[in-house]
Amino acid sequence: MCSNTDKGLAADSAKELVRVINVCIRALAEDANESEHPQQSALSIAMAAGLPAKMTYTVAECGKFTGLGQDRLRRDREKGLIDFIEPDGERGARISVNELDRYLKDIGALL
Asked: For residues 65 and 87, what is the distance between their CA atoms, to the nearest angstrom?
């Protein structure tokens, strides 16, 4: 069994990890916005569409902010062109921004 102290340390560690990840995401977004020749990325497109900076977005969100639609993303997944992250095989599939960048470059939609 875990003591209350162990549970508290684990919770504190998890909170610190989330804080560090959020700092990194903000830094990445700022770098993308401030670079001399900003490169278009899934993250910058999502943020321009008014979404918060995240490491993954739902298929529906990606379909909307890329303009491709979730049906196309799902068809391309079946073709093996893009990978989704599915929590334990349940609903709620997500796409990482890195995977979306790779996919968009592969189909010529992102320069």
From this structure: 22
Note the pLDDT tens digit of each residue in 14-67: 888 888 888 888 887 777 666 554 567 888 888 888 999 999 999 999 999 999
What lies within 8 Å, CB to CB, of 87 at 6+ separation is 94
Hey, is 29 helix, strand or coil?
helix
Largest CA distance in the chain: 54
d(CA 107, CA 81): 9
Which of 86, 82, 45 has its CA nearest to residue 67? 45
Contacts (Cβ under 8 Å, ≥6 apart) of 22: none
Q: For a pLDDT cut of 70, what percent of the chain falls above it?
A: 85
SS3 assignment, position 80: coil
Residue 33: the pLDDT is 64
Strand extents, DSSP E, the chain: 56-58, 94-96
Question: What 3-state DSSP class applies to 31?
Answer: helix
